[in-house]
Amino acid sequence: MIELQAASYSYGHTALLSDMSFSIEPGSFHFLTGPSGAGKSTLLKLLYAELLPSEGTVSLFGQSVDQMSRDQIAFLRRRIGLVHQNCDFLDHLSMTENICLPLTVAGQSARDDLDQLLAWVGLTHRADALPPQLSGGERQRAALARALIQAPEVVLADEPTGNIDWEMSQRLLTLLIELNKMGTTVLIATHDLNLIRLAKSEIAVRVLRIKDRQVQFAGSDL
Ligand code: ADP
Ligand code: ADP
């Protein structure tokens, strides 16, 4: 689904990530961890082709990103849902309009099951609210709903619980686990080891760790 072969990334002359080879299989649940500044966000950007590898290859759905046109990359990205830590909503649009924005931008019609999606993330009562009226936890769940609006096969989340308390973090994790059980591939970048431990107690997860510019599979020593 997503595969890296000897992929490296440098900002200018500074090598940040080197010689990474691993793949994200359909239906899997991955965590990506490592200290702040290790390169988690950068690796996520490589995984959805916002950045291209300095060396080696990154393949999305079987195609190497550096052999694709911008249009092809934009098209493939619809199959990937992104949840950012800082959910950037347009403050003058309602939550429903914000969540549906990726469809609007792509010229697609609204989903018939939008109400179900809102109910699933627990935002039915906030459908008409404006973003500034929402709590941190509600914003994160809205960001998840927006990431799911085009029914992606993979969801990549960058520190999704970075700004919310533990109770809200657990709730968000529960949603991501449910989503994975319904077949969506999930990858969460986080430095929150408690979140990883909690997930491990419920489902089989693989933990990738960035250490010394390399990506390793972490064992059971979390
Ligand atoms: P993490 O998500 O693990 O905190 P990042 O991928 O955000 O790590 O950043 C890794 C390192 O790369 C940091 O030292 C950061 O300062 C640097 N970095 C990130 N973006 C850029 C950029 N656009 N130009 C140069 N250096 C960058
Ligand atoms: P439950 O019955 O436990 O509430 P469902 O399986 O009915 O869960 O899912 C509720 C709604 O969540 C779905 O109808 C759909 O709108 C949304 N949803 C769940 N998974 C996905 C997904 N992978 N992509 C897009 N939307 C999803």
TrEMBL record:
SMART domains: AAA
Domain ABC transporter: 2-222
Superkingdom classification of source: Bacteria
Gene Ontology terms for molecular function: ATP binding
Keyword set, alphabetical order: ATP-binding, Nucleotide-binding
PANTHER family referenced in this protein's UniProt entry, alphabetically: CELL DIVISION ATP-BINDING PROTEIN FTSE, IMPORT ATP-BINDING PROTEIN
Protein name: ATP-binding cassette domain-containing protein
Organism expressing this protein natively: Parasulfitobacter algicola
